[in-house]
Amino acid sequence: MPHDPFHVRQTLTLASGKKGTLYSLPALEKAGIGKLSRLPVSLRIVLESVLRNVDGKKVTEQHVRELANWQPNAARSAEIPFVVARIVLQDFTGVPLLADLAAMRDAAAKAGKDPKVIEPLVPVNLVVDHSVQIDSYNNPDALKINMGLEFERNSERYRFMKWGMQAFDTFKVVPPGIGIVHQVNLEYLARGVQHKDGVYYPDTLVGTDSHTTMINGIGVVGWGVGGIEAEAGMLGQPVYFLTPDVVGVHLTGKLNEGVTATDLVLTVTELLRKHKVVGKFVEYFGEGTAALSVPDRATLANMAPEYGATMGFFPVDDVTVQFMKNTGRTAEEVDAFESYFKAQGLFGIPKAGSIDYSSVVELDLSSIVPSLAGPKRPQDRIALPAMQDTFDTLFSKPVAENGFNQPAANLSKRYPTGRDGLEIGNGDVLIAAITSCTNTSNPGVLLAAGLLAKKAVAKGLKVAPHIKTTLAPGSRVVTEYLQNAGLLEPLTQLGFGLAAYGCTTCIGNAGPLREDIDQTITNNGLVCAAVLSGNRNFEARIHPNIKANFLASPPLVVAFAIAGRANIDLTSEPLGSGRDGQPVYLKDIWPNSHEVATVMKYAADPAVYQKLYSDLTRDLPLWNAIQAPTGNLYQWDDSTYIARPPFFDGDAPRIGDIKGAKALALFGDSVTTDHISPAGSFKPTTPAGQYLQAHKVAVKDFNSYGSRRGNHEVMMRGTFANVRVKNLMLPPGADGSRIEGGYTLYKGEQMAIYDAAMKYIADGTPTVIFAGEEYGTGSSRDWAAKGTQLLGVKAVIARSYERIHRSNLVGMGVLPLQFKGSDSVASLNLTGDETFDLLGINDKLKPQQDVQLAITRRDGSRQTVALLLRIDTPIEVDYYNNGGILPFVLKELAGKA
Fold first, then answer.
1. Which of 141, 491, 609, 722 is 20 to 30 A distant from 473 in Cα terms?
2. Mean pLDDT of 750-777
3. Is 109 exposed, middle or buried (0-12, 13-18, 19+ CB in 10 A)?
4. How far apart are CA 145 and CA 152, in angstroms?
């Protein structure tokens, strides 16, 4: 019999007359357990999972009572065990996760257990979207060429995925060339409401990509976690998190003519970063929210990691139901979706005053103006008219003030590339990309880009051929509706031809620039620009030599490509001259809302979605041709892509004080997971490059760090190796600037962080990392934590952490510690040549207790300060005591067999 201690399992009757059961939240409220109807909708959906999964062990009646009686502004110490309905992976994180599962099977077999005991207990979908790179562009065969190169580079990984599909019953793969994980999730994987054994329950998930939150746009509770946490969720562990604050965002009014969803999200990102919503749920409500389309909601939800929230949630309403119909869900699924949410009292966008939130942020949609964000962070919004002044000012400002520290006189200089008579200069746009899940899932802005392109072509405007222009849609549906609306052709004429289905430029797969252009940038230290419709623009992410990166709506991406430079005021200066020789302004070609609405019907045809998602391997001969091994255990070989990870080797660690530690690096503020985790390309001279050459891999076959995430030897060599990361242990140059790149000092000698780490391990010396505010901002990147652990780092000590990375450090058995009060690297005058003891660590740790940091300086003087232990929950203590989440889960599963 199902466990129903609160007697709330009730009959659900669908509109069709079909019957099932549900765990009723209204019945729980009626039983006096809490004032549930005043709880934020997102919390109620989490509560339903807790209620339905009570087993008296991991999920208890007390957990139900605590969450049902959530108070908007209470101290947050209780943890919620959240059992999710499914897991979504992208391929960069999915491959190492699959490698871990395969290694766990090896460990189970070695212990005399049936390897099949290691099996995902919830459905898992891996979507291959991070591997394709833009090698070819502005070419009718670009898609074919880029996919051919993708398979050439990644066939070993794809063989491994195909093995996983046959080895694990609940593991499914969406092949390359279908779309971006979040759009595929929105259009296809999310079915609204799930049912099992007659019980209906909401679709919930975690995903191994920060932007999993995009699914919040259709009322699905889900967020990004590291691959480490996702693995535990797959293997039957609840996802544990501290009871959150819930910030209500009250949207009023409506967007003005000419303002896009992208302008809205950049404004909200700026606003909520200032409101400090890190680690909190954000829930949108009010009449302005109700008036937004689902793609606009999904675009806002997608950017939750950029504003720092765990989620950006939109409740289900009639608009959501219509979206489910438009995207080809079956009549039975739509009926279950609508009937379930109505029966649970969860249907409709809440009105002002109807919900108790921790705090409320007000935003009048009519105040939004056309905007971009950059040049280095997504929260740094720039109103369109201010682009020229902002760029020109930042050009000469100090790096500490987000600037580029360049002489103002260089702004007007042009530099010959030596080819085609081309000259380039500071501020030139060299990459213009319609890319990433954020906007390529939104028909409103994509159709607007197509309409703008059509008008531009009609006026005779062109994009200079040296600008790398790309269109990488979020799914094949996009190509279909752009084609049907007659807008793919004008985009192609401007250079925005179909180049790939995948994250591409936004994830760092922009591909190479023309060699002469690249050389001219590096020879002259130019600050050139990329304009992209992505969600991230951190340093060195888009292209290692493009220093100014601006997020913008797809129509603005096209406009800036035509203009050819970022330091321009498009509200007053012409984009260029038309074929009649007259100046053409942005206002002359900007589409109005009526024009967009007229073509919107092409994006709402259920038959298109059903056709394209009915057979995921149709028209994919490269995928179908891959031969994969079979069997329950993987036969490891000498692949430089896939290697058996070492996380299950050896005994559980001894938990105790860390003594005699040395600093591996001292970092400043806003060190992102892009700085920590290996990403993008790497050079032959790097430790990773040297490793591959020693294994007879030619430089041309290096591929990217991301594609080699299944090989820990490559990844640990690339940890902290970002070309822009600055280790403050290194002395500044004569001009006061810091050396960039993954270097440190070992006994006074400068070397790669990897090389120093190996020497410390050989010496038996533990190491620690110091950092400032917002350590680990950015994508979930489990290798940022895995690589840290494999380099022998025992603890990270920072001013503050981004949520996922802190959790991942614990998951890998690395202590996250936080400075208290005003203490920091600077206030303690740390230089990196000190010796450190961390005291008060034992196997009886308590969440968020104090740990003592004892600093011994070179002159023998000693200072002790208190640090906050950022192991936040009791289950995290268990993970740490077992050496991490993976050994903990293996021990538990093997114990049951």
1. 722
2. 97
3. middle
4. 11
Q: Would you tell me the crossing angle of helices 476-484 and 606-614 to the nearest 10 degrees?
A: 140
Q: Give dist(CA 118, CA 115) in Å, integer.
A: 6
Omega within 30 of 0 (cis) for the link into 416: no
Percentage with pLDDT > 90 across the chain: 86
| Model confidence band, residue 486 (pLDDT cutoffs 50, 70, 90) | very high
Query: Is the predicted pLDDT of residue 214 greater than 70, yes or no?
Result: yes
**Averaged over 753-779, what is the pLDDT?**
95
* Beta-sheet strand order (sheet of 204-207): 171-174, 124-127, 86-90, 204-207, 221-224
Closest residue by Cα to residue 314 from 337, 338, 294, 335? 294
Is a pLDDT exceeding 60 seen at residue 633?
Answer: yes
Spatial contact of 573 and 384, defined as CB atoms under 8 Å apart: no
- Summarised one tens digit per residue, pLDDT across range 510-561 is 999 999 999 999 999 999 999 999 999 988 889 999 999 999 999 999 999 9
What percent helix, strand, coil does the chain show, rounded to 5? 40, 20, 45
* Distance (Å, whole) CA 658 – CA 769: 13
Residue bearing tokens 């440190």: 744
87 in Cβ contact with 205 (< 8 Å): yes
> SS in 3 state form for 219-266?
CCEEEECCHHHHHHHHCCCCEEEECCCEEEEEEECCCCCCCCHHHHHH
Angle between the 91-110 and 885-896 helix axes, to the nearest 10 degrees?
50
* Three-class SS state of 745: strand
Closest of 138, 882, 893 to residue 561, by C-alpha: 138
Question: Out of 558-562, 672-676, 711-715, which region has the weakest mean confidence (pLDDT)?
Answer: 672-676
Domains of the chain: 86-367 (3.30.499.10), 371-604 (3.30.499.10), 658-672+743-881 (3.20.19.10)
What Å distances lie between residue 532 and 552, 666, 847, CA to CA?
A: 6, 32, 42
* Angstrom distance (rounded) from CA 376 to CA 374: 5
Q: Look-up: residue for tokens 């950049």?
A: 266
> In the numeric block, which tokens belong to residue 119?
């099996």
| Location of structure tokens 């103006």 | 369
Q: Is 229 left (phi over 0), alpha (psi -120 to 50) or beta?
A: alpha
Three-class secondary structure assignment of 647-706: CCCCCCCCCCCEEEEEEEEECCCCCEHHHHCCCCCCCCCCHHHHHHHHCCCCHHHCCCCH
Please tell me the distance from the alpha carbon of residue 202 to that of residue 138, in angstroms, as a whole number. 43
Q: d(Cα 725, Cα 674) in Å, to the nearest integer?
A: 9
